[in-house]
Every structure is written in C-alpha cells, then in structure tokens.
C-alpha cells in the first residue's frame, strides 16, 4: 500500500487553538489577502492576530484609495456556525490533518474546509479529470482507472463535475474519493450531483474547499479549485479534454507544482481527445491502465520530505521595518505590467530582501500587486 514510504508525512504540525483559528479565518477572508500574502504576514508578525492589527496601516502605506475591508469577528462566527451545522471543520496548513502534498505547494491555502473523513487526505492521491461532455468510452476509462488506483491504495481526487469527474468519484466510492469544490462545501455544484455528494460522504469520502461557506462558484473560481486538485495529488490524469478546457488548466498547474501529468490517448477524430493527445505530444506520460500510473508514481512515494509551510516558532518575530519613501518609490518604479521575480526586483533596486518584502506586502494589501506562477509579480496600474 502506498503511503508507508517517504514523501511528505501526515500527522505532523501543531494544532491551532480556537482563538488562533478564528484569527486565521479573519485574516484569509480579509480583502487582498491571498495565500502568499497570508504567509508573509504570519512570518513578519508571528500571528494572525498581530497581522490583523497591522493591515490598515500597511494598506494605507501601499497607496490604497479606500479603506481595506477586514473580515469582522461576527462574520467569522457566522461562518464557523454554518460549518458546524453541516459537520465541516477548518484545517490550517500547519496542522496534522492538512493534506501533506498540498502543504508542499507554492501557495497552499492557509485554511481548507473539510467535510468527511480527514484520514483520506493523508493517503497518496491521484487526480482524474476530463471532459464534462464525456463519451461513454471516456467515462468507462475514468471508472476503470479510479477502481484500479483505489485498489492499489490511492485516494481519487476530482472536482465533482459532470462527465469524467463524476465517473471517477463513483468508481472510487468503495476505496476513497475526495471532491474539491470551487464554492463553499455547503454549496452543491452542479446541483444535480447532490445525490453523488451524499454517496461520497456516506462512503467515508471527503469534500474540500478553500472558499467561504455559502459561496456560489463563479467562472473564475474554478481555476483556483483546479490548483488545489493539482497540488494535493501526486499526478493528474486527463482522460478526455478538448483543446481549450479546464482539465488542461489543471494539467498545467500540476506541472507548475512539479507533479506528474498523464493522459489517456483518444481518437484523432474526436475533438474531446484533442487536448489529451496534445498533452502526450508535449511529453505527458501516456497511460492506458492503472498499472501504468502506479508504476510511474512508485519512485515519488520514496522521495525525501520537502520543506513546506510551518507555523512560526514561539520565538518573537523580527521587528517589522517601515521602508522609507524613496525605497517604496524605487520598488514601484522597477515594477510594471510584465511579471518579474522577486530576486530580480531585489537585484535591480539594490534594497535588502526584508525591505522589499514589506513594500510588496503594502502594495498587495492596497490592491496594486498581482502575483503570478513561479513566484513572479507585476504592478497593477
């Protein structure tokens, strides 16, 4: 059974207290605070509570044109109550039950909402994704792969969408499956999959999301969902996908996280296979059965543990510096609409990394900074 070898280990980390979890939830639900900004704030201030107190001044120094919207304690209490009503819990990135491979991602969600069996998140997982308008053969292949991988000890992860996703979840009910949501874990999307959702929970499966309770998914939320699917799994297997599809976005995100991308070949005459055939041409591993996938992933299970997000130690964080006006101007002048790395920015400005980090925090909280894959950043004009 996989999971007994190397790689990131479950069960590590420090549990957040109730007070800490409330502060974390307030911080990540506040305006302009994404995963990377959250991490930087925790590293700078040592706690979410201290970071929350600093947000207004940081945003102001970054040039915000209006007051930053900070999640209130009442809003957080309402969300926690909504989660409790459906038996959901929030897991912090440094806590024991946080998915171990997701913790190693470039920008792991600071908190995920979980409904169902947390133990599934600790097992090595494979994503199976593909067309919503799937063929009969495509759905059968997805089910065949899911059953074979489940019997080999892998958790099957997908997005509860129509077609390939649904077929993979159904086939893995007996061995373990996780559905990742683009909205809140209390919002079934698509609505017709409510019965499938209930079967997943009844079979000791799990539902995961980084979005707030009650959040109805929008089009731009699905790439965020796909990022989690790609990062929490060792490999993404694409069964059927057209040239322009969300499944190819998931495959790209998996590559950015240094995960395996695999594809099932299809007929050149079927447009639903054009994306998967294209992936194979670009170097994705061709697979036709679960044994192909298990063989490819076996070496990954013996990899040494990689560094991931950790809660700050109980030592006081370094004093927060306030950059000078000319230092801010240097950074803003060096940035533009074309993404650059932070290392390039430091080299160009000649400023200390610590100073640049604070200025970037200010700019992002003011809504003036955009983050891109590979740790690159650009200025929003």
Written description of the protein model:
By secondary structure, the protein is an alpha/beta fold. Among the domains are: 114-302, Rossmann fold (3-Layer(aba) Sandwich), CATH 3.40.50; 325-379, Arc Repressor Mutant, subunit A (Orthogonal Bundle). Helices cover 41% and strands 12% of the residues. The chain contains 15 helices and twelve strands. It has helices at 18-28, 35-45, 48-61, 73-85, 100-103, 136-151, 164-171, 194-202, 221-231, 246-256, 274-281, 290-297, 325-334, 342-349, 353-365; strands at residues 89-92, 111-116, 125-129, 155-158, 177-180, 206-209, 235-238, 260-263, 285-286, 340-341, 369-372, 376-379. Helix 11 links the parallel strand 8 and strand 9. Helix 1 (18-28) packs across helix 4 (73-85), helix 3 (48-61) crosses helix 15 (353-365) and helix 6 crosses helix 12 (290-297). The longest helix has 16 residues, at 136-151. The chain is globular and about 60 Å long. Residues 1-7 have low confidence and may be disordered.
């Amino acid at each position: 059974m996989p999971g007994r070898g190397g790689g990131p280990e479950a069960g590590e980390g420090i549990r957040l207290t109730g007070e800490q979890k409330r502060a974390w939830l307030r911080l990540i639900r506040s305006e302009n605070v994404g995963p990377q900004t959250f991490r930087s704030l925790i590293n700078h201030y040592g706690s979410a509570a201290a970071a929350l107190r600093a947000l207004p001044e940081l945003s102001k120094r970054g040039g915000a044109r209006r007051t930053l919207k900070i999640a209130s304690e009442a809003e957080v209490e309402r969300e926690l109550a909504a989660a409790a009503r459906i038996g959901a819990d929030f897991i912090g990135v440094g806590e024991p039950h946080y998915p171990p491979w997701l913790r190693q991602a470039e920008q792991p969600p600071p908190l995920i909402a979980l409904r169902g069996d947390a133990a599934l998140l600790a097992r090595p997982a494979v994503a199976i994704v593909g067309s919503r308008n799937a063929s009969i053969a495509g759905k059968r292949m997805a089910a065949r792969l899911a059953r074979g991988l489940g019997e080999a000890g892998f958790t099957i992860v997908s997005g509860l969408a129509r077609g390939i996703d649904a077929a993979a979840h159904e086939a893995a009910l007996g061995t373990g499956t996780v559905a990742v949501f683009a909205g809140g874990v209390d919002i079934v999307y698509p609505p017709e999959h409510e019965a499938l959702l209930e079967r997943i929970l009844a079979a000791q499966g799990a539902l995961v999301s980084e979005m707030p309770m009650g959040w109805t998914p929008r089009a731009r939320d699905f790439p965020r969902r796909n990022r989690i699917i790609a990062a929490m799994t060792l490999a993404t297997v694409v069964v059927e996908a057209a040239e322009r599809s969300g499944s190819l976005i998931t495959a790209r995100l998996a590559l950015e996280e240094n995960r395996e991308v695999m594809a099932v070949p299809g007929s050149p005459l079927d447009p639903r296979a054009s994306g998967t055939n294209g992936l194979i041409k670009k170097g994705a591993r061709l697979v036709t059965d679960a044994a192909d996938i298990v063989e490819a992933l076996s070496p990954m299970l013996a990899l040494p543990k990689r560094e991931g997000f950790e809660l700050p130690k109980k030592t006081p964080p370094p004093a927060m510096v306030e950059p000078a006006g000319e230092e801010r101007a240097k950074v803003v002048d060096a940035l533009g609409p074309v993404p650059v790395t932070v290392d390039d920015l430091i080299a160009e400005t000649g400023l200390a990394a610590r100073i640049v980090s604070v200025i970037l925090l200010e700019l992002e909280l003011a809504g003036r900074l955009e983050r891109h894959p590979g740790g690159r950043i650009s200025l929003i004009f």
